[in-house]
């Protein structure tokens, strides 16, 4: 079977880049880029990410929302790594435990600054948080990043 080309190869390379990030040893999660401008991160909430009152700390909400929006945006940019320049969040309900999905979608922009939003869907299927971020092209070529490679 020939290697994936074009957009699909870029999506798989971004998924590999995500998996290679050291932070994901702390936040076990899996990224899937479904199509241009759409990213999904699956993860599990358990007591290891709880705050003192027994629900997921906002750190995990932010990380997953930012990552989902970021990768939705970077799926449209195949030459440069994007940087988050701003991110606004709204918490709507606590998550105590179970599987959670962060869904990211590109909203606008393709040149220098891109806008994407994301939402967290808790184990009950209800939205637990949402966020919107702005992302700008960096000077860092994706091809220079060790983790940016299609899986073998």
Automatic annotation (TrEMBL):
<dbReference type="Pfam" id="PF03061">
    <property type="entry name" value="4HBT"/>
</dbReference>
<dbReference type="InterPro" id="IPR003736">
    <property type="entry name" value="PAAI_dom"/>
</dbReference>
<feature type="domain" description="Thioesterase">
    <location>
        <begin position="54"/>
        <end position="128"/>
    </location>
</feature>
<dbReference type="InterPro" id="IPR006683">
    <property type="entry name" value="Thioestr_dom"/>
</dbReference>
<dbReference type="GO" id="GO:0016787">
    <property type="term" value="F:hydrolase activity"/>
</dbReference>
<keyword id="KW-0378">Hydrolase</keyword>
<dbReference type="InterPro" id="IPR029069">
    <property type="entry name" value="HotDog_dom_sf"/>
</dbReference>
<protein>
    <submittedName>
        <fullName>PaaI family thioesterase</fullName>
        <ecNumber>3.1.2.-</ecNumber>
    </submittedName>
</protein>
């Amino acid at each position: 079977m020939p290697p994936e080309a074009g957009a699909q190869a870029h999506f798989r390379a971004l998924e590999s880049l995500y998996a290679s990030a050291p932070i994901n040893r702390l936040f076990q999660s899996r990224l899937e880029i479904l199509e241009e401008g759409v990213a999904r991160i699956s993860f599990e909430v358990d007591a290891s990410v709880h705050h003192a009152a027994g629900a997921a700390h906002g750190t995990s909400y932010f990380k997953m929302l930012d990552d989902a929006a970021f990768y939705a945006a970077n799926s449209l940019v195949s030459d440069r790594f994007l940087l988050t320049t701003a991110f606004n969040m709204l918490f709507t309900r606590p998550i105590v435990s179970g599987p959670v999905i962060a869904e990211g979608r590109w909203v606008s922009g393709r040149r220098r600054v891109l806008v994407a939003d994301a939402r967290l869907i808790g184990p009950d299927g209800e939205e637990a948080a949402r966020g919107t971020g702005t992302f700008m092209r960096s000077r860092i070529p994706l091809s220079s990043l060790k983790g940016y490679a299609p899986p073998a």
